[in-house]
Amino acid sequence: MKYITIDSNIWIYANIAEAPENNLAIEKIKEAEKSWIVVNDIIISEVFHKLSILLKSKKDARLRVEKIFDSSYVMFLPIEKSTLKDSFRIAESCDMRINDAIIAAQCLENYTNILTDNRKDFSKIDGLEIIPLRQ
Hints:
Layout: E1 3-6, H1 8-15, H2 22-32, E2 36-39, H3 41-54, H4 58-70, E3 74-76, H5 81-94, H6 98-110, E4 113-116, H7 119-122, E5 130-132
Parallel strand pairs: 1-2, 1-4, 2-3, 4-5
């Protein structure tokens, strides 16, 4: 069974009907449901934070994030100490934000692809397989 990490930007687009990427994000998530979808602490916190701003409601953001958690096709992987150590090296060597480096390090450790709209940063990392939102 294949594992796919879905980056926070995809979940955000899928939860904002007005986002130009909304339909595409929903379509890509549905495709990913044929595999195991992976999320982690960073992804969930980024989604909650951005949705609480866009929806102007922490309650609505919480309900939408809980829906992700409660999905039968979503697996939560906590971030390990070894992942954090690897992420510091990635952030430094690839000149990227620590949150993205943590997500990337976990993908590499668990052999998961990443579905993202952030090819610019994730493409800097050797061995990370990217599923782009757009072609």
